[in-house]
Amino acid sequence: MTQFSGIQPTGLTHLGNYLGALRQWALRHGPDDLFCVVDLHAMTIRHNPNVLRARAREQLAMLIAAGVNPDIACVFTQSDLIEEHGALTWVLECVVSYGELARMTQFKEKAKGQDGVRAGLFTYPVLMAADILLHGADAVPVGDDQRQHLELARTLAKRFNASYGEVLTVPRAVTPAVGARVADLAAPERKMSKSSGDQSGTVLVMDPPELVRRKIMRAVTDQIGEVRHDPEHQPGVTNLLDILGACTGADPRLLAGEIRGYAELKERTAEAVIEELRPVREGTTALLADPAELDQIRAHGAERARARCRHRLDAVLKVTGLR
Ligand code: TYM
Q1: What distance in angstroms lies between residue 30's CA and the mean position of ligand 1's atoms?
Q2: How is this protein annotated for GO cellular component (predicted)?
Q3: Domain coordinates of the chain in residue numbers?
Q4: Residue whose CA is closest, atom 33 of ligand 1?
Q5: Could you tell me the fold of the domain covering 199-285?
Q6: If you measure from the C-alpha of residue 260 to the centroid of ligand 1, how many angstroms do you get, rounded to a whole number?
Q7: Quick check: CB of 167 below 6 Å from ligand 1?
Q8: Is the CB of 38 under 6 A from ligand 1?
Q9: Is the dihedral of CA 266, 236, 66, 23 positive or negative?
Q10: What is the DSSP letter of 138?
Q11: pTM of the shown model
């Protein structure tokens, strides 16, 4: 089995990204798996080149600090394989329809109210499909919000194979039982997100412990006053229970039975999150202090990834009549 997944280097990697994705990758990875810092995706909205460069480094460091071992799995930066990912993206743009892309909810959300929406934002899911299909992944560990993009990648793989022959593996999304959709602490009806203008409900992986504590202690709950796992009527309390459960390995429903009030729930959640994120934050900082080591890891990952995908890209170019 080959797993592939990616994360955008935005500098705002949060607890949702960590519990929904990074930690899942760290918990289970082998020599056939690939994890990628998707810097090409990060330029689909307005960006500053120097900031992008720095954040791609930080995201690579964080992935390793979170526990993805680059001596086991292949850890690489997407733009290091821009020729390969770019080539398959073009081919898949000639497989996908305009209407399919126009239906993507993430595009509609991100494009809303923006001037000069980049075409790259529109074709974003095609680049994502290319990432996955280029590397022959069959499992893609992601949070809930990527399901629609994964469905599109499946559709494109099947359509490509039906038109040109069985070259591409049809992937499937793998989401964690708890933590696939961490909600915003200040507005628990929506997901925790990098792009929500207000950061008070978003715990960043790099936030210092005191700030993490403050954000969690101020989390929105409700007037009911009882600790119950009830996503529909108590989304804020349920979110805290899920976060606590994800950090401690305990069942959130059982936790609901043993915690006496909202203050205790928040205290315990804050402690658990701080302890969970501490090694990731400290490890990221330590790695960033050693640029030579990080450069070496990056170069090694790119070399491995390229060697592994070349034959698949050659097959794609051949069956489509380009070679
Ligand atoms: P990105 O960078 O937005 O998010 C990285 C991962 O974090 C998950 N996630 C969440 N999980 C739980 N709760 C949340 N509130 C939450 N918010 C985000 C996302 O589902 C994701 O798994 N398009 C992708 C990056 C990408 C990719 C790929 C992923 C590019 N190519 C190929 C998989 C395979 C994205 O923007 O993720």
Answers
A1: 20
A2: cytosol
A3: 4-179+291-319, 199-285
A4: 5
A5: Tyrosyl-Transfer RNA Synthetase (1.10.240)
A6: 34
A7: no
A8: yes
A9: positive
A10: S
A11: 0.96
Q: Is 3 in the pocket of ligand 1 (CB under 6 A)?
A: no
Select the CATH number that applies to the domain covering 4-179+291-319 from these four: 3.60.15.10, 3.40.50.1110, 3.40.50.920, 3.40.50.620. 3.40.50.620
pLDDT digits (tens, 9 = 90+) for 9-64: 999 999 999 999 999 999 999 999 999 999 999 999 999 999 999 999 999 999 99
Token pair recorded at residue 259 = 């915690």
41 in ligand 1 pocket by Cβ < 6 Å?
Answer: yes
- Ligand 1 pocket mutation pick from 8, 17, 126, 182 by most atoms within 8 angstroms of CB: 17
Identify whether the C-beta of residue 259 lies closer than 8 Å to the C-beta of residue 272: no
Contacts of 42 (CB under 8 A, 6+ apart): 8, 9, 10, 52, 55, 56
Q: Which of 165, 167, 131, 168 is nearest to 150 (CA)?
A: 131
Q: How many CB atoms are located within 10 Å of the residue 145 CB?
A: 17
CA distances from 154 to 11, 294, 298 (A): 30, 34, 29
In the residue annotation, 110 being an active-site residue is answered as: yes
Chain segment 240-259, per-residue pLDDT in tens = 999 999 999 999 999 999 99
